[in-house]
Design the sequence.
DNA sequence: GGAGTATGAATGAAGG
DNA sequence: CCTTCATTCATACTCC
């Protein structure tokens, strides 16, 4: 999937834009992706505007992000999971006459999509920014304004204190 | 890739920048988009059935189009304008306490969202009925006719360019 | 360094 | 009106 690539989201102001990764579009950090994926696998599929705002707000801790990014992320993730599933289902249908399910095939499917938490959307999804370093498995990520873009105002989302990994504790309350 | 449709339509001849696409759904030409956008920015937001019919008729000069396409276009454009504005506003509010800046989040927005139309909605903008309606292909569109105010101060929106097509002439009147 | 893939962004088309 | 789905465009990234 995604490996530890650092983020150099330089803000779009760089006119030169030759070498740097021109930030034409949002490039999520690994932590952001992790949180989003966790939320998704926890059952969140179509966050409301409020939820989007909260998620975006929390994720801005890890790097530049806008709420529309969160919105698009869930849209895309859901859609692509669906389409993957559709494709696989077609394959199954196509070959349903000839095979008897064995563990091999099962494994493949499971790995390809672990779909279908029956959409039991959580009632109250809360993201609390705590200082408890509960989970320390995250890779060492560094949120910092790239030197390429810090000069020209904007985008100095200094996180106040320099933490190794931002303390994000998300509690999901299912009903 | 799976082929379901075999119908192709190349987008508007020399309109440029349009790649050939399958014609599963309407793919507006650049001219069509321009006209629609102009109409929108002129204040038209929810065209009546008659207006839709006339716009569609005129735009058919530029390529294949149906009334429902115009209808959907205005629906989507209006909704997304609102939605974008809402999201952006929220983001701005959210980021108020982190930085003191001058042109902060404007980065992507300027490029992708050139929203913020002056929002100067002219009250009654009506497209004059030039000819009686045809209603040949439009389905059940529940567009309720708006009040008719046909009078004074009309201007004509003309698109001529350098092409060999008849000039578009949409006469709009507002009061 | 171009092909192939993953994915962010956009938008047409509905449904409710 | 609102939200959602499906499809497509655009771009970043990976891997030969």
Sequence:
């Amino acid at each position: 999937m995604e490996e530890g690539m650092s983020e150099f989201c330089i803000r779009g102001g760089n006119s030169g834009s030759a070498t740097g990764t021109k930030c034409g579009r949002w490039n999520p950090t690994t932590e952001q992706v992790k949180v989003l994926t966790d939320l998704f696998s926890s059952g969140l599929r179509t966050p409301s505007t409020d939820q989007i705002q909260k998620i975006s707000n929390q994720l801005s801790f890890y790097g530049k992000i806008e709420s529309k990014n969160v919105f698009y992320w869930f849209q895309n993730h859901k859609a692509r999971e669906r389409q993957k599933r559709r494709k696989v289902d077609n394959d199954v249908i196509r070959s349903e006459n000839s095979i008897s399910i064995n563990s091999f095939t099962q494994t493949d499917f499971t790995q390809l999509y672990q779909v279908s938490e029956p959409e039991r959307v959580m009632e109250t999804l809360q993201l609390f920014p705590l200082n408890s370093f509960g989970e320390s498995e995250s890779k060492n990520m560094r949120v910092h304004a790239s030197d390429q873009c810090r000069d020209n105002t904007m985008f100095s989302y200094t996180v106040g204190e320099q933490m190794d990994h931002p303390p994000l504790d998300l509690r999901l309350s299912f009903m």
About this structure: The domain at 30-93 of chain B is CATH 1.10.10 (Arc Repressor Mutant, subunit A). Chain B has four helices and five strands. Confidence is low (pLDDT under 50) at residues 1-6, 10-21, 101-155, 160-164 of chain B. The helical segments of chain B are 30-41, 49-59, 67-94, 106-112.
